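Dear H.,

Thanks for agreeing to be a second pair of eyes. The structure we're designing against is below in token form, covering all 130 positions.
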């Protein structure tokens, strides 16, 4: 799908997961606007076509409480690459209770982080949405 033509009026998000050992056996479940779109294994890539505009991208794991969210603004015809990586957490020390309390200053938690890496169509990414 990554090499297929983008349908008119659509945008594309390429979800690329790093190949690290932390949480390597657990798929990262990606959701767009609350709907599951992919389970991404360590070292794998998934491609999702979306309606342009504001997109609420989140990543979570069945084995760890919480989720990590990334608001995106995608333009028609744009291809955005995001990276999913393991998130260091307090759960290793505090167990499941630590996982429930483990959130950053934006309320993000969970086993993974997600960040916008680039636009694959050569356009400049817009500034981050606060």
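And this is the sequence the design step returned. I haven't edited it by hand at all.
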């Amino acid at each position: 799908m990554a090499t297929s033509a983008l349908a008119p009026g659509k945008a594309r998000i390429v979800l690329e997961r790093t190949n690290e050992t932390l949480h390597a056996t657990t798929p990262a479940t990606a959701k767009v606007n609350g709907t599951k779109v992919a389970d991404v294994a360590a070292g794998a890539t998934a491609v999702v076509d979306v309606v342009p505009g504001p997109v609420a991208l989140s990543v979570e794991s069945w084995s760890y409480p919480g989720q990590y969210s990334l608001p995106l603004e995608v333009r028609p015809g744009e291809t955005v690459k995001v990276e999913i990586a393991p998130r260091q957490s307090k759960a290793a020390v505090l167990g499941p209770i630590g996982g429930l309390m483990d959130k950053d200053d934006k309320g993000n938690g969970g086993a993974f982080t997600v960040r916008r890496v680039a636009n694959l169509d050569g356009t400049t990414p817009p500034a981050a949405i606060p």
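Two observations from my side: The chain has a mean pLDDT of 82. Helices lie at 91-101.

Warmly,
E.
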